[in-house]
Amino acid sequence: MTEILMHEIEVRSSASEKIDVPVKFDEHKVKECASSVIMLTHKSSSLKLAVLLDTRAHQRALVVIPGNRGTSRKVSDFYMEIYGINSNGKVVIYDTKSLANFDQQNEGTDSRQNTNLQPQLTRKHISQARYEVRLPMLTRQPCYKFICLKEVSTDEKHLFQCANGTTRYTVPFPLKPAKEYEINVFCGSCDGPGRYTLDAYPPLKFQAAMDKSQLRLLYKRAIEFCNDRSLHRRIHFLYRNKPHRYFDKIRSQNGGIMTKYMKNDGGDQASPLNRAIQGLFFSALLKTTPNRRTVVPPCSPFGNQRLHVEASFFLNQSNNLYFADFFCHYTNHRITLVVTKANSYSDKFCSENLIPLKSRGNPFLYYNMWQNGFFTNLAVNIEVFYTENIDIGELLSDKAAYFTFCYSKGYSRKKSFIGQRKNKSCSVCNLNL
């Protein structure tokens, strides 16, 4: 392996310190690079300086560290990151150097960052594994932004520079299904040709959605877990628990219409359903009493009022049924099913990304024609995500729904909004175990 000089970086501070940092790498790796980004970061993460260079021209660069009364700005307080980028934006060279090694020993670092803003992620087209990064909105103009995307398991990196004013950036290649990624965003001002002062923002860690073949494997695990037909029980109603104020507000302010909302991040983090479509959750969970009767649970963490809706409202010829998730929270296993109106937007999404089920032929929640009834499986907690708004008043007048009260136990508002994530150590519902 032959190392060649890639760049020479001269670093100066306001205190007249000066060091020269030769950047050397394997010749074959250097020849893959079209451009380089040299980034200097203060040990407090309060200041970042970046330089864009033409790798093939073996450019030299001067980085001047600005003075600041409140912060030590010695050269030794910085470390250097080197990104060598090919013509497709892939980082083929990455290395870090402590500038204290060129001056004096570093006294350690802390990890303070700009926590006011954080990038957000949108799954733009799940079946094509396309994702969009929503960048922090800053008041300063002009604002230059850099995105570093890292695949956690392989440490493979890509670095992208966004045009001035960019607030949304589509990752220009498909991400690997179910893989974990980390996004770092740097925003700041231009100090001259190819030189930038940048702020770092908290990293965004996420898992790409699993593809249909992986979801099918999860579906098979769910079937294996639910293969005991002796645990199938008749069910007449599905139910939804909320605080009574929630239902009072719907009746008094929303004309009796229960409005759907975006599915949260609960369950498997790689579920294609997360943050993809809107709906309303209902439960098909039944409990067995000592005398072997099946009843709805006497209490709920989601609220003290319970809306019961006939099972036929969900499972009928106008709707389609899909398998979306199988997970646990260290205790009972759960299955998420999705009910859509045929040919709706949500139905098209589910047909592309989820596993279709027959309402008369699945082991989870189904209609039995011979017994003229609906059945659920007591082996799991089955939750149904219904993807349309619901007119409660109409259901009540048609005697297709009714209300009851129950005990409220626990506090789940935060979990409802964010979503309680699955237990990653369970060998039953994790594909990687």
UniProtKB/TrEMBL annotation:
InterPro entries: PHYHIP/PHYHIPL (IPR042868), PHYIP/PHIPL_C (IPR045545). It comes from Magallana gigas. This is Phytanoyl-CoA hydroxylase-interacting protein-like C-terminal domain-containing protein. Residues 233-431 form the Phytanoyl-CoA hydroxylase-interacting protein-like C-terminal domain. Pfam families: PHYHIP_C. It comes from the Eukaryota.
